[in-house]
Write a structure and sequence with these properties.
With about 70 residues, the protein is α+β, with helices and mostly antiparallel strands. The protein has a single domain, classed as TusA-like domain (Translation Initiation Factor IF3, 2-Layer Sandwich). About 35% of the residues lie in helices and about 35% in strands. The protein is built from two helices and four strands; from the N terminus they run βαβαββ. The radius of gyration is 11 Å and the shape is globular.
């Protein structure tokens, strides 16, 4: 089951904190993170990889980024 973190419209560090709250509850799986700024994208991917998660894909559409994390 996919977990989705919709952090669009939130200022840093909130997207990172929301993402970390979800991935800390999971031992493995897939998490989809939605953010709407380049800074949030970079910070979320950095925090996820530091927590042992792999960034499988990052796509941009309509001014938002979709980040797929897997572990």
């Amino acid at each position: 089951m996919d977990n989705v973190v919709d952090a669009r419209g939130l200022s840093c560090p909130q997207p990172v904190l929301e993402t970390l709250n979800v991935i800390k509850k999971l031992s493995s799986g897939t998490v989809t993170v939605l953010v709407d700024s380049e800074t949030s994208k970079e910070n979320v991917t950095r925090a996820a990889t530091s927590s042992g998660w792999n960034v499988e894909d990052v796509t941009e559409k309509e001014g938002a980024f979709q980040i797929i994390l897997k572990k």
